């Protein structure tokens, strides 16, 4: 987790048949027995997907890498660890430029680490990185070689009514994503997803509660380390819907326009191929209705940390422990 | 469970913590200072556990350290408003973090505290079972605990780039100048300095050994004193330079096992290194 590798993923669904010098098993044929020359033909075969490492970018990170982001120029990318961000060229594996370094001279003064970073989708000089204190910094690489001074600083003032011992821990941002338009950024902290307008630094324009019923369970979640789970968040292709994961194999979608949200479950028992997912609901107290799940019966070992949305289609991928689920819009 | 006040096994501790977390969350029966103390204990326990991990998680450690600092600050402000003395029942722990282990796990005897008025030490009869499982830790211990953890994290993490060490089989020790210098600049911690020093020593001596036959080095040294099996007082003075090597050597394996990059340690015989050290120091 301190080395970056570039892989080529390829599909193969044809294989050549009819070599002259070897037979179908690969054994060499006796040249004196060959009387006819033929051109090998490609025949279909079962689809094979292979991933081969093409580049290894090593020895540039001292701490665990938390993000990789390809730049819009498709020539460079950045890798971020807890204290530093490095800029690489794809073709150069033994050198990188350090563009952010927040390591203090004295480690005892360390109070904040980098948690995620991403390049702007269109402007190859702009990137953002988030911190464990719930702040986001936008940097422009044209201003200086070392982007220690941010161009913009996004932070929401703390809500005093929600203050607890765990306020700082749950404010740590686990993921930051630019919208496809490049106008907004979305951040995920432990309990919420927030959408920020790049032009407004003092607060997000939208805040969505992912699982606010966990707010009263923070001590238990701290005790079993669940409070440190890092959930990802994604935009759909048109930036109208955002999605993120939760516990019990639930994932949540928020429609930014209609303000409606839905909770769905990714599990074998509830999904047959082509079946339509049923919305789930967590009951927060009082009478539990049928089909609802109470907070205490949630399975915190089943967490959906990684999700992805196809850039243009309504197809999503959801990773639930050992299984990968792919869902799409119902086809009418 | 009441009044046991003895060192408990970790599993018992964990069970009681789980019960306390639920009590915290349901907000029943726990006063604010107790809740705060519970959170503090959990933080310190976690920091202790993380310290023992092969790959300590910097992100988590920083978050927990910040929580501890915040609680510490709060307690300081409260105690500055109310002049009180801290419970005498606290075991005065040594400044370094390993000294935390004893108070970290042991319980506070209610009888030893008496009626002292201190926020951290309030004991009401109805809450004895809960208080029994909480510990009171002094400010200095917490600060030094956090400092030592963060320093150790720096040390453990930054030593992992393989440029610092020579893998077995290499003849030339490769030390990019700036990395070596940087490492040395960062090392405020004596233990860290000894470790880096130790690593340089071992690497240098390994290549030295490869270049020369061992017998050539030692033929003019009278080794009759060191052939004895027991450590006699006459051996002490000559042994003191080699103690310096033994220190980094002891810490060195532990540092290296902390690195997940599988840095290969050049494990040379301790006695051979003693000899080498004597030559280097003597020359």
Automatic annotation (TrEMBL), chain A:
Keywords: Repeat, WD repeat. The keyword Repeat applies. One of its GO terms (cellular component) is protein phosphatase type 2A complex. PROSITE patterns: PR55_2 (PS01025). It comes from the Eukaryota. GO terms for molecular function: protein phosphatase regulator activity. The keyword Chloroplast does not apply. InterPro entries: PP2A_PR55, PP2A_PR55_CS, WD40/YVTN_repeat-like_dom_sf, WD40_repeat_dom_sf, WD40_rpt. Gene3D superfamilies: YVTN repeat-like/Quinoprotein amine dehydrogenase. PANTHER family: PROTEIN PHOSPHATASE PP2A REGULATORY SUBUNIT B (PTHR11871). Belongs to the phosphatase 2A regulatory subunit B family. This is Serine/threonine-protein phosphatase 2A 55 kDa regulatory subunit B. The gene is Ppp2r2b.
TrEMBL record, chain B:
This is SRTD2 protein. Coiled coil: none annotated. It comes from Cardinalis cardinalis. Residues 32-79 form the SERTA domain. The lineage of its organism: Eukaryota, Metazoa, Chordata, Craniata, Vertebrata. Pfam families: SERTA. PROSITE patterns: SERTA (PS51053). One of its GO terms (cellular component) is nucleus.
């Amino acid at each position: 987790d301190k080395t970056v590798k570039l892989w080529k993923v390829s599909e193969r669904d044809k294989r050549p048949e009819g070599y002259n010098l070897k037979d179908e098993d690969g054994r060499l044929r006796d040249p004196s027995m060959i009387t006819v020359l033929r051109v090998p033909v490609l025949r279909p075969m079962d689809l094979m997907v292979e991933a081969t490492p093409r580049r290894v970018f090593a020895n540039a990170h001292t701490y665990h890498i938390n993000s990789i982001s390809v730049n819009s120029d498709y020539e460079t990318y950045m890798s971020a660890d807890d204290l530093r961000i490095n800029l690489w060229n794809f073709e150069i594996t033994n050198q990188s430029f350090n563009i952010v370094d927040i390591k203090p001279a004295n480690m005892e003064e360390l109070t904040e680490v980098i948690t995620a970073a991403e390049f702007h989708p269109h402007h190859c000089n702009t990137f953002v990185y988030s911190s464990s204190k719930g702040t986001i910094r936008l940097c422009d690489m044209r201003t200086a070689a070392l982007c220690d001074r941010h161009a913009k600083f996004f932070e929401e003032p703390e809500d005093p009514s929600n203050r607890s011992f765990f306020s700082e821990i749950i404010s740590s941002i686990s993921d930051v994503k630019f919208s496809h338009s490049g106008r907004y950024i979305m951040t995920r902290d432990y309990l919420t997803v927030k959408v920020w307008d790049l032009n407004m630094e003092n607060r997000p324009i939208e805040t969505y509660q992912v699982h606010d019923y966990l707010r009263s369970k923070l001590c238990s979640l701290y005790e079993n380390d669940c409070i440190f789970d890092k959930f990802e968040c994604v935009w759909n292709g048109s930036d109208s819907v955002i999605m993120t994961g939760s516990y019990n194999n639930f994932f949540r979608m928020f429609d930014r326009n209609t303000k409606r949200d839905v909770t769905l479950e990714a599990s074998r028992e509830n999904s047959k191929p082509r079946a339509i997912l049923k919305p789930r609901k967590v009951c927060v107290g009082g009478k539990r209705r049928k089909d609802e799940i109470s907070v205490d019966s949630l399975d915190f070992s089943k967490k959906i940390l990684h999700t992805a949305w196809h850039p243009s289609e309504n197809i999503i991928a959801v990773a639930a422990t050992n299984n990968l689920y792919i869902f799409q819009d119902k086809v009418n | 469970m009441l009044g046991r006040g003895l060192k408990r096994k970790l599993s018992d501790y964990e069970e009681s913590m789980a019960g306390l977390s639920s009590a915290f969350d349901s907000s029943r029966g726990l006063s604010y200072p107790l809740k705060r103390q519970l959170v503090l204990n959990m933080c310190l326990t976690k920091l202790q556990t993380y310290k023992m991990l092969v790959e300590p998680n910097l992100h988590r450690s920083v978050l927990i350290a910040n929580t501890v600092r915040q609680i510490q600050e709060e307690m300081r402000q409260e105690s500055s408003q109310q002049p009180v003395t801290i419970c005498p029942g606290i075991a005065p722990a040594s400044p370094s973090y390993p000294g935390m282990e004893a108070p970290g796990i042991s319980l506070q005897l209610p009888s030893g505290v008496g009626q002292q008025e201190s926020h951290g030490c309030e004991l009401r009869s109805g809450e004895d079972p809960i208080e029994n499982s909480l510990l009171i830790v002094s400010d200095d211990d917490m600060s030094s605990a956090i400092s030592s953890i963060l320093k150790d994290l720096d040390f453990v993490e930054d030593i992992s780039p393989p440029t610092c060490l020579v893998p077995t089989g290499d003849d030339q020790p490769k030390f990019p100048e700036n990395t070596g210098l940087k490492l040395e600049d960062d090392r405020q911690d004596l233990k860290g300095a000894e470790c880096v020093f130790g690593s340089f020593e071992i690497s240098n001596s390994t290549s030295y050994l490869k270049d020369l036959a061992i017998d050539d080095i030692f033929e003019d040294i009278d080794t009759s004193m060191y052939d004895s099996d027991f450590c006699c007082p006459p051996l002490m003075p000559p042994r003191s330079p080699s103690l310096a090597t033994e220190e980094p050597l002891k810490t060195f394996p532990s540092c290296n096992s902390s690195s997940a990059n599988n840095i290969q340690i050049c494990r040379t015989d301790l006695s051979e290194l003693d000899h080498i050290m004597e030559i280097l120091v003597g020359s």
